Amino acid sequence: MALNPLDRIRSYYEDMTKTDREIAAWIMDNPRDAARSTIGALAEYTHTSKAALVRFSTRIGYNGFAEFKFDLSRYLVSRNASQTETSAEADSFHAITDTYTEYIKRIPECFDREDLDRISDLLIRSRRTKIFGVNRTFNSARQLKQRLLKIGIDAEAVCDTTDMSDTCEMLTEEDLLVIFTITDNAGIYNDHVVTAAGHDCPVICFTMTPALPFKKMCSHYIVLPRISRDSSISFLDDQAIFLVFIEILLNTAAAMTR
After folding, report:
1. Which of 11, 51, 114, 161: CA 20 to 30 A from 45?
2. Range with the lowest mean pLDDT among 101-105, 148-152, 176-180, 197-201?
3. What is the CATH number of domain 100-257?
4. In this structure, which CATH number among 3.40.50.970, 3.90.650.10, 1.10.10.10, 3.90.1570.30 belongs to the domain 5-86?
5. What is the pTM of this model?
6. Do 100-257 and 5-86 fall under one CATH topology?
Protein backbone atom coordinates (compact mmCIF):
# COMPACT_ATOMS: atom_id res chain seq x y z
CA MET A 1 0.00 0.00 0.00
CA ALA A 2 1.31 3.43 -0.96
CA LEU A 3 2.12 5.72 1.96
CA ASN A 4 0.03 8.83 2.49
CA PRO A 5 2.04 12.10 2.26
CA LEU A 6 2.34 12.56 6.03
CA ASP A 7 3.54 8.99 6.60
CA ARG A 8 5.92 9.44 3.68
CA ILE A 9 7.43 12.50 5.40
CA ARG A 10 7.86 10.46 8.59
CA SER A 11 9.53 7.60 6.72
CA TYR A 12 12.15 9.91 5.18
CA TYR A 13 12.67 12.10 8.26
CA GLU A 14 15.86 10.45 9.61
CA ASP A 15 17.67 10.99 6.29
CA MET A 16 16.56 14.59 5.81
CA THR A 17 18.76 17.67 5.86
CA LYS A 18 18.25 20.34 8.51
CA THR A 19 16.24 22.46 6.06
CA ASP A 20 14.12 19.47 5.04
CA ARG A 21 13.37 18.75 8.70
CA GLU A 22 12.26 22.34 9.30
CA ILE A 23 9.89 22.07 6.34
CA ALA A 24 8.68 18.65 7.47
CA ALA A 25 8.00 19.84 11.03
CA TRP A 26 5.93 22.80 9.84
CA ILE A 27 3.89 20.71 7.42
CA MET A 28 3.25 18.01 10.03
CA ASP A 29 2.06 20.67 12.50
CA ASN A 30 0.00 22.55 9.89
CA PRO A 31 -1.09 20.08 7.18
CA ARG A 32 -4.27 21.96 6.26
CA ASP A 33 -2.43 25.25 5.93
CA ALA A 34 0.25 23.56 3.83
CA ALA A 35 -2.36 22.11 1.49
CA ARG A 36 -3.98 25.53 1.03
CA SER A 37 -0.77 27.57 0.65
CA THR A 38 1.04 28.62 -2.50
CA ILE A 39 4.68 27.62 -2.77
CA GLY A 40 5.66 31.23 -2.10
CA ALA A 41 3.55 31.48 1.04
CA LEU A 42 4.81 28.13 2.32
CA ALA A 43 8.39 29.27 1.76
CA GLU A 44 7.68 32.28 3.99
CA TYR A 45 5.97 30.18 6.65
CA THR A 46 8.88 27.73 6.82
CA HIS A 47 11.58 30.42 6.48
CA THR A 48 13.06 28.57 3.51
CA SER A 49 12.73 29.07 -0.26
CA LYS A 50 10.71 27.84 -3.22
CA ALA A 51 13.73 25.84 -4.40
CA ALA A 52 14.02 24.20 -0.98
CA LEU A 53 10.36 23.16 -1.13
CA VAL A 54 10.82 21.66 -4.58
CA ARG A 55 13.88 19.72 -3.36
CA PHE A 56 11.97 18.57 -0.29
CA SER A 57 9.10 17.30 -2.45
CA THR A 58 11.39 15.36 -4.78
CA ARG A 59 13.36 13.86 -1.89
CA ILE A 60 10.22 12.29 -0.48
CA GLY A 61 9.29 10.79 -3.83
CA TYR A 62 7.24 13.38 -5.71
CA ASN A 63 7.94 14.95 -9.09
CA GLY A 64 7.71 18.42 -7.57
CA PHE A 65 5.88 20.63 -5.10
CA ALA A 66 2.65 20.74 -7.12
CA GLU A 67 2.33 16.94 -7.05
CA PHE A 68 3.07 16.85 -3.31
CA LYS A 69 0.49 19.56 -2.58
CA PHE A 70 -2.15 17.78 -4.68
CA ASP A 71 -1.51 14.48 -2.90
CA LEU A 72 -1.66 16.18 0.51
CA SER A 73 -4.96 17.90 -0.33
CA ARG A 74 -6.46 14.66 -1.65
CA TYR A 75 -5.34 12.78 1.46
CA LEU A 76 -6.83 15.34 3.87
CA VAL A 77 -10.15 15.33 2.02
CA SER A 78 -10.29 11.52 1.90
CA ARG A 79 -9.35 11.27 5.59
CA ASN A 80 -12.15 13.66 6.47
CA ALA A 81 -14.60 11.68 4.35
CA SER A 82 -13.57 8.47 6.09
CA GLN A 83 -13.95 10.02 9.54
CA THR A 84 -17.34 11.38 8.60
CA GLU A 85 -18.58 8.05 7.27
CA THR A 86 -17.57 6.14 10.41
CA SER A 87 -18.83 8.79 12.80
CA ALA A 88 -22.23 8.78 14.43
CA GLU A 89 -22.49 12.35 13.11
CA ALA A 90 -22.55 11.22 9.49
CA ASP A 91 -24.27 14.39 8.27
CA SER A 92 -21.41 16.68 7.23
CA PHE A 93 -23.69 19.72 7.15
CA HIS A 94 -24.55 19.30 10.81
CA ALA A 95 -20.95 18.46 11.67
CA ILE A 96 -19.72 21.74 10.17
CA THR A 97 -22.41 23.93 11.70
CA ASP A 98 -22.06 22.23 15.08
CA THR A 99 -18.30 22.77 15.03
CA TYR A 100 -18.60 26.45 14.18
CA THR A 101 -21.27 26.86 16.85
CA GLU A 102 -18.96 25.33 19.43
CA TYR A 103 -16.08 27.64 18.52
CA ILE A 104 -18.22 30.76 18.32
CA LYS A 105 -19.47 30.03 21.84
CA ARG A 106 -15.84 29.98 22.99
CA ILE A 107 -15.09 33.48 21.68
CA PRO A 108 -16.37 35.38 24.77
CA GLU A 109 -14.04 33.29 26.95
CA CYS A 110 -11.05 34.96 25.25
CA PHE A 111 -11.56 38.45 26.70
CA ASP A 112 -13.64 40.39 29.19
CA ARG A 113 -15.90 43.42 28.87
CA GLU A 114 -13.13 45.75 30.03
CA ASP A 115 -10.97 44.60 27.11
CA LEU A 116 -13.71 45.47 24.63
CA ASP A 117 -14.35 48.84 26.28
CA ARG A 118 -10.68 49.83 26.18
CA ILE A 119 -10.21 48.66 22.59
CA SER A 120 -13.38 50.45 21.51
CA ASP A 121 -12.21 53.62 23.24
CA LEU A 122 -8.93 53.47 21.32
CA LEU A 123 -10.79 52.98 18.04
CA ILE A 124 -13.02 55.97 18.75
CA ARG A 125 -10.30 58.33 19.98
CA SER A 126 -7.55 57.56 17.47
CA ARG A 127 -6.74 60.13 14.81
CA ARG A 128 -5.91 57.42 12.28
CA THR A 129 -6.60 53.70 12.51
CA LYS A 130 -4.52 51.39 10.33
CA ILE A 131 -5.53 47.74 10.11
CA PHE A 132 -3.00 45.19 8.82
CA GLY A 133 -3.75 41.78 7.35
CA VAL A 134 -2.11 39.51 4.78
CA ASN A 135 -3.75 36.95 2.48
CA ARG A 136 -6.90 35.61 4.17
CA THR A 137 -6.53 37.82 7.25
CA PHE A 138 -6.74 40.85 4.97
CA ASN A 139 -10.41 39.94 4.52
CA SER A 140 -10.83 40.39 8.26
CA ALA A 141 -8.89 43.67 8.21
CA ARG A 142 -11.08 44.96 5.41
CA GLN A 143 -14.24 43.84 7.19
CA LEU A 144 -13.26 45.72 10.35
CA LYS A 145 -12.55 48.82 8.28
CA GLN A 146 -15.93 48.65 6.58
CA ARG A 147 -17.79 48.07 9.85
CA LEU A 148 -15.96 50.99 11.49
CA LEU A 149 -16.92 53.27 8.63
CA LYS A 150 -20.56 52.33 9.22
CA ILE A 151 -20.41 53.88 12.69
CA GLY A 152 -18.44 56.94 11.61
CA ILE A 153 -14.89 55.82 12.48
CA ASP A 154 -12.37 56.36 9.70
CA ALA A 155 -9.93 53.51 9.12
CA GLU A 156 -7.71 52.03 6.44
CA ALA A 157 -6.95 48.35 5.75
CA VAL A 158 -3.41 47.59 4.51
CA CYS A 159 -2.15 44.32 2.99
CA ASP A 160 1.06 45.28 1.20
CA THR A 161 4.14 44.78 3.40
CA THR A 162 5.97 47.77 1.89
CA ASP A 163 2.98 49.99 2.60
CA MET A 164 2.94 48.60 6.15
CA SER A 165 6.53 49.74 6.67
CA ASP A 166 5.81 53.23 5.34
CA THR A 167 2.63 53.47 7.38
CA CYS A 168 4.32 52.55 10.65
CA GLU A 169 6.94 55.25 10.14
CA MET A 170 4.14 57.85 10.14
CA LEU A 171 2.18 56.59 13.15
CA THR A 172 2.14 58.59 16.38
CA GLU A 173 0.66 58.29 19.88
CA GLU A 174 -2.57 59.75 18.47
CA ASP A 175 -2.98 56.87 16.02
CA LEU A 176 -3.81 53.17 16.34
CA LEU A 177 -2.41 50.05 14.69
CA VAL A 178 -4.58 46.91 14.56
CA ILE A 179 -3.14 43.60 13.35
CA PHE A 180 -5.00 40.46 12.30
CA THR A 181 -2.76 37.37 12.14
CA ILE A 182 -3.32 33.70 12.85
CA THR A 183 0.28 32.68 13.58
CA ASP A 184 2.58 35.19 11.81
CA ASN A 185 4.78 32.25 10.81
CA ALA A 186 6.41 34.41 8.15
CA GLY A 187 7.51 36.93 10.80
CA ILE A 188 5.89 39.79 8.92
CA TYR A 189 4.76 41.94 11.81
CA ASN A 190 7.52 42.08 14.42
CA ASP A 191 9.47 44.94 12.79
CA HIS A 192 6.25 46.87 12.13
CA VAL A 193 5.20 46.60 15.76
CA VAL A 194 8.66 47.67 16.93
CA THR A 195 8.44 50.76 14.71
CA ALA A 196 4.89 51.67 15.76
CA ALA A 197 5.58 51.10 19.45
CA GLY A 198 8.75 53.18 19.12
CA HIS A 199 6.54 56.07 18.05
CA ASP A 200 4.29 55.45 21.09
CA CYS A 201 1.47 54.29 18.82
CA PRO A 202 -0.87 51.80 20.57
CA VAL A 203 -0.88 48.37 18.91
CA ILE A 204 -3.73 45.88 19.12
CA CYS A 205 -3.27 42.30 17.90
CA PHE A 206 -6.10 39.87 17.16
CA THR A 207 -4.54 36.44 16.70
CA MET A 208 -4.86 32.71 17.37
CA THR A 209 -1.35 32.23 18.76
CA PRO A 210 -0.85 32.73 22.51
CA ALA A 211 2.62 34.29 22.45
CA LEU A 212 3.95 35.93 19.30
CA PRO A 213 7.37 37.65 19.70
CA PHE A 214 5.85 41.13 19.76
CA LYS A 215 3.13 40.36 22.31
CA LYS A 216 4.66 42.47 25.09
CA MET A 217 4.72 45.52 22.81
CA CYS A 218 0.95 45.37 22.27
CA SER A 219 -1.42 47.41 24.39
CA HIS A 220 -4.05 44.71 23.80
CA TYR A 221 -3.48 41.13 22.63
CA ILE A 222 -6.59 39.00 22.04
CA VAL A 223 -6.16 35.26 21.36
CA LEU A 224 -9.19 33.70 19.67
CA PRO A 225 -9.87 29.95 19.21
CA ARG A 226 -8.30 28.44 16.09
CA ILE A 227 -10.88 26.25 14.44
CA SER A 228 -8.68 25.13 11.51
CA ARG A 229 -6.14 23.36 13.72
CA ASP A 230 -8.33 21.96 16.48
CA SER A 231 -11.21 20.68 14.36
CA SER A 232 -11.29 17.15 12.97
CA ILE A 233 -13.11 18.54 9.93
CA SER A 234 -10.70 19.56 7.17
CA PHE A 235 -10.53 23.03 5.68
CA LEU A 236 -12.67 24.98 8.16
CA ASP A 237 -11.60 28.60 7.86
CA ASP A 238 -10.42 30.73 10.77
CA GLN A 239 -11.70 33.97 9.25
CA ALA A 240 -15.25 33.13 10.34
CA ILE A 241 -14.06 33.37 13.95
CA PHE A 242 -12.47 36.76 13.29
CA LEU A 243 -15.65 38.00 11.59
CA VAL A 244 -17.87 37.06 14.53
CA PHE A 245 -15.42 38.71 16.93
CA ILE A 246 -15.54 41.89 14.81
CA GLU A 247 -19.31 42.02 15.23
CA ILE A 248 -18.95 41.67 19.00
CA LEU A 249 -16.36 44.45 19.08
CA LEU A 250 -18.36 46.74 16.82
CA ASN A 251 -21.44 46.33 18.97
CA THR A 252 -19.46 47.73 21.90
CA ALA A 253 -17.89 50.54 19.85
CA ALA A 254 -21.24 51.56 18.35
CA ALA A 255 -22.80 51.79 21.82
CA MET A 256 -19.98 54.09 22.95
CA THR A 257 -20.45 56.45 20.00
CA ARG A 258 -24.14 57.05 20.63
Report:
1. 11
2. 101-105
3. 3.40.50.10490
4. 1.10.10.10
5. 0.67
6. no
